[in-house]
Amino acid sequence: MRPFLLLATRADDTVADSEFAAFARYGGLGPGELRRVRLEREPMPDLDLDDFSGVLLGGSPFCTSDPEGSKSPVQRRVERELSGVLDRVLAADVPFLGACYGVGTLGVHQGGTVDHTHGEPIGTVPVTLTPAGRADPLFGALPATFDAFVGHKEAIRDAPPAAVVLAGSPGCPVQAFRIGDHQYATQFHPELDVAGIVERVTVYRHEGYFDPAEFDEVVARLRRSRATAATALLRGFVQRYRRDDPPRGRAGARAEARAT
After folding, report:
1. Which residue numbers delimit the Glutamine amidotransferase domain (predicted)?
2. Pairing state of beta strands 54-57 and 96-99?
3. Is the dihedral of CA 190, 225, 167, 139 positive or negative?
4. Fewest CB atoms within 10 Å of the CB: 22, 48, 169, 188?
5. Which fold has domain 4-258?
């Protein structure tokens, strides 16, 4: 099988490794079937996207709507490189699924407005599919309404002109959208389970997602969550887009040597 590619930007090793493991676990991907590039550590390697079944983008501490002057050099580089990858993904119609940070990245790339209007605190929200979501070959396999984990400072305010909005929640009208037929972005986290989100809030408790004094209350609320349906999205994406022929290009070997 041609592996899937995970583009990651989390500097904390514990969270980064757990994210990688979660994408693999809920995608049903075994050893060697998910390759990772950590863009917060190094520039984008020379990738031949044809060596991969599809591209995944994980969450991030970066916010695309931050004022340009407040962004670190690393964040500005990451945004430039991701924009270049999306140029290639869309031009070649490469399957793409971006989780949380994917909404901001793909949304801005396609001309949408991303700001803090529809940020949501860490927790679970009911996500409801739109008619287009129910008809979508990937999202249509999910329940019409399901609980999912969220926690984000920014979100889509105005969807990109070319976007098909697939899902929303009471506090965030655009929880998922599609560009073309095969490029998806979600505001919610399809890779997270209770253990995963508790680990993230523990690491990010002082990063402005909630009042640190409320940490115990936040964790207790998360432990009562029953958000399990969203992870089926990853398995569905992998099953739909996996390519069982092996990689053909030399770029795949270069990426494997530099990725983990």
Report:
1. 84-192
2. parallel
3. positive
4. 48
5. Rossmann fold (3.40.50)
